[in-house]
Amino acid sequence: MFSTNIKNERQLFPEEMNILYDSKCNVCKLEMDMLARRDARLHGSKRMIKLTDIESDKFDPNDPANGGVSYAKGMSAINAVHRDGRVIEGPQVFLKAYELVGLGWLFKFTEWPVFKPAVDIGYKLFAKYRTNITRGSSLDELISAYEQKKQIEQAGCTSSSCAIK
Asked: Are 97 and 80 in contact (CB under 8 A)?
């Protein structure tokens, strides 16, 4: 009898991880562009990182590749989906992404017990005020505008004279 070592694991996409990011945040876009360039240089056409722009009109939180991460959740903190569907958030995303492009050593300290609490607090503060700094609008304002836009789209209204009550 033959034994096989084939895993029967569900894969949502060929890359290792799908990072959900805000392309309208210049800091975020700069970092994602750097990761994409490094990924392409190291792995060629067999990329390790998939990037999904949560500001794209094509973003669909219901797509399994997006892990059920809503626009609001994605804007509140960086999220990533492993190809098996597991979702991670915050500093863990950076650690894993940098590991995938051979730079994990840059973020390894974020998991050390002596630094982890400070890193987590620092990231939460950055995430809370990121849009105020990088986009000139609060997180609440952006989420409200997004929800209003989606309501207009669902109503089938394309005219600028449409209004939500």
From this structure: yes
